[in-house]
Amino acid sequence: MADKFFPINTDTACKLKWAWSTIRLYTGKTSSCHRVNSSLVDTNSTTFDFHNTPKQLADRQLMLEGKWPTGGCEYCKNIEDVGGTSDRMMHLKIPNQVPVELDTDINAVRVSPTIIEVYLDNVCNMGCLYCWDGFSSKIQQENIQFGEFSHSGVEIKNRAVVNPDHATLKTKFWEWLDLNCSTLERLNILGGEPFYQQDFAVCMDFLDNRSNPNLEFNVVSNLNIKHDKFKNIILEIKKLVDAKKIKRFDLTASIDCFGKEQEYVRYGLDLELWKKNFEFLVNEKWIVLNVNQTITGLTIKTMSPLVDYINLHRENRDIGHYFSAVVDTHKCLEPGIFGKDFFKEEFDNILAAMKTDTVWNQTHQSYMQGIYTQLNSIERDQEKINQLEIFLNEIDRRRGLDWKQTFPWLVKEIKNVA
Known about the structure:
This protein is α/β, with parallel strands linked by helices. 41% of the residues lie in helices and 15% in strands.
């Protein structure tokens, strides 16, 4: 069967807006793309139509008219405005995953998803700086212990309100998936940390009791899991692939940089354990292996060693590399706050290290270049730099850390301005 590409060709049309559905069972919210604002799922609807909320329908109509929706799509717009390669542009190059409704009506806005991204729970063994209690039970417990914090625009709040219909949402989701999994092309499982969540076993049973030979199954993991436990789970998933219960298995490993900086930003991470689990995956050639990183102002200076590490293991197999500089929580972590050319040397090294031997690797380098170009269009924001110091001081108080020892360049930067 020939590859089928997204058929809508307006300047703003995004395949994700039609094909992708993110659903967070813990909070009861849904969106088309994980970067955009969410809508509450209507649990009273008999059809459980979480993919066609009024907001989603309105956004698709705007894109048909060549207009940009608000509420998150600015991330791609800003990158494209400076000549970079955005998520929207990258996904247009990926074939298939097109809703069947577009085969007969190219202007259809009420469609069926082909990619489901589901956050089963917020159970997590880590507390990343840029995360929040809705995605991390570790942060949730920390917030309960230390309370909320608000000072000079820096806020840490208890926001993880469990949807009262959480149990109903889970039941309805698995019922919906049972009816629709035959037309689904990709299922992404996120957390928290999926491999620590009880509902991941429900997911495994669901897949084991059905045959979905066209389904790509992807888990996003922090790899901060005891090695023997991790191996056993992966080998159980291999049985699904061998039995053709699913088409393939993707493991997307979350990591942002290397060194003590990474263990500070991704609080709770044992970097050596991460490497041990990752290197096990490298040797499991049946797995489609990816790395996903969040770019913040605290991780750029030790990103090059991560790129070198990925390149080293690319000598043995293909490894996808995905990244973004979007921070939805604490805006003081955004890398652009330091202004133009602040990270020029680091990005020069990163871009030089990135492989360009394939079209896809060239696309990834172009994507990274677009992020850097977009960052270089932002003026220095001294207020947010001051907020970063306040935020890190509070994090140190809660966690018994010392950001000044971890990020001496930031101490120097703040002193130079003060």
